[in-house]
Amino acid sequence: MDLDTFFVSVERLVNPCLEGKPVIVGGMSDRGVVSTCSYEARRFGVHSAMPMRMARQLCGQAVFIRGDMELYSRYSRLVTDIIADRAPVYEKMSIDEHYLDLTGMDRFHDCQLWSHELRQTIIKETGLPISFGLSENKTVAKIATGQAKPNGELEVPTPYINTFLDPLSVQKIPMVGEKTYAMLHSMGVEKIGTLRRLPPLAVERAMGKHGLDIWKKANGHDSTPVCPYQERKSISKERTFEQDTIDVAAIRQCLARMVESLGFDLRSQGKLTGCVTVKIRYSNFDTHDMQQRIPYTYNRRMMIRLIGVRFSELVSGAPQLALFDDNMELTSLYSAVDRIKMRFGEQIIHRAAG
User: Fold this and answer.
1) How far apart are CA 21 and CA 39, in angstroms?
2) For 47, phi and psi rounded to 5 degrees?
3) 308 - beta bridge partners?
4) Burial (Cβ within 10 Å: 0-12, 13-18, ≥19) of residue 133
5) Percentage of the chain exceeding pLDDT 90
6) Quick one: CA torsion of 318, 321, 324, 328, rounded to 10 degrees?
7) Which of 118, 240, 259, 275 shows the smallest number of beta carbons within 10 Å?
8) Rounded CA gap, 172 and 188, in Å?
9) Average pLDDT of 246-252?
10) Which of 294, 299, 301, 262 is nearest to 279 (CA)?
């Protein structure tokens, strides 16, 4: 199940005047990127992750919105709660996408009818358009969902999987990005059916194990299970000083180091946070949690024993530095830093401020 143009749909609930207009949500500066856009804007060639400057050139008449992650997270939780109340097993893949496993339900229910009724319930109770694809595994169901959009539903029974997949572009296969598509295109492979008919060893020789995984998906094979959803609510770090301190510079440095480490954890797990809490414990063990921006200096003239940072209200989502103010330079920088940390360890490189 995949919510259609989720951020735009939420904005239209708040402001019905946006209905039918091209709407683009993302960073407002020219260096920002498009987070999502309406189907009306897509007709002009606008798409997610496009530089905002280019989006303005393609569709200058669009309504541009900075976006409200807190609002989107709230609606995402509404949808998740409805699914959790009815589905036997579900996995929340991102802020707007869920996988449901209905294995065994077909003995008691018409799975297509049950899914239809669930979709109608979500639409009725949230006002959000949502699409679903129903098939025997994640890959085919996801592709079917894409074909069902906008605001539709599509079942692909097992005997008809190849018939459904064959005429579609290989770009429809999950894991096929621009570079993979360019390689397949250079091999004369544009349709899923063409890829399906290639010898698997030839695909593996040309593209490695990644190519073999894509070949399996082209054949409608995917054994990836739907993992029961158990969302981690928060991540945090604390530091108790060996000696209580009032050295504000050292405290700021420690906070910066902890926030940098938590940010790396979020990006590694594909998470976004909706709340930041700063914890301070004074030398008399008086402890304060501040769930808002803290002042540059502390009012109390007392030694500090412990400080900590917690990110909570976590949701799955594409890792981003700032959801609506990303620019390609910073994104590339942090991607490179993350790759270094994943290869050599988190402690290998830090911001100077930490």
Assistant:
1) 9
2) -150, 165
3) 238, 279
4) buried
5) 48
6) -90
7) 240
8) 16
9) 87
10) 294
Q: What is the mean pLDDT of residues 178-199?
A: 92
- Distance (Å, whole) CA 272 – CA 315: 5
Fill in the amino acid letter for 162.
Answer: N
Give how far Cα 78 sits from Cα of 95, 123, 126, 340, Å. 11, 11, 7, 38
Rg (CA), the chain: 24
What pLDDT is recorded for position 294?
A: 31
Q: How far apart are CA 235 and CA 313, in angstroms?
A: 10
Cα–Cα dist 127/168, whole Å: 31
Choose, from 11, 40, 97, 153, the residue flagged as catalytic.
Answer: 97
* Tokens encoding 299: 């009012």
Instruction: Examine the pLDDT at 74 and tell me if it is beyond 70.
Output: yes
Q: From CA 151, how far away is CA 15, in angstroms rounded?
A: 19
Task: Reply yes or no on whether 238 is catalytic.
Answer: no
Lowest mean pLDDT among 228-237, 297-306, 343-352: 297-306
Where is average pLDDT lowest: 10-19, 136-145, 208-217, 284-293?
A: 284-293
Distance, CA of 237 to CA of 310 (rounded, Å): 7
Identify residue 343 by its one-letter amino acid code.
Answer: R
Quickly tell me which residue has 């929340």 as its tokens: 92
Q: What is the pLDDT of residue 302?
A: 57
DSSP string, 65-93: E---HHHHHHHHHHHHHHHHHH-SEEEEE
Angle at 1 between CA 137 and CA 267, to 5 degrees: 90
Question: Is residue 214 helix, strand or coil?
Answer: helix
Q: What distances in angstroms separate CA 21 from CA 9, 82, 110, 140, one per listed residue?
A: 12, 29, 38, 32
Examine the pLDDT at 69 and tell me if it is beyond 60: yes
Q: How far, rounded to the nearest angstrom, does the alpha carbon of residue 318 sit from its chain's CA centroid?
A: 4
Single pTM value for the model:
0.68
Q: Which amino acid is residue 257, in one-letter code?
A: R
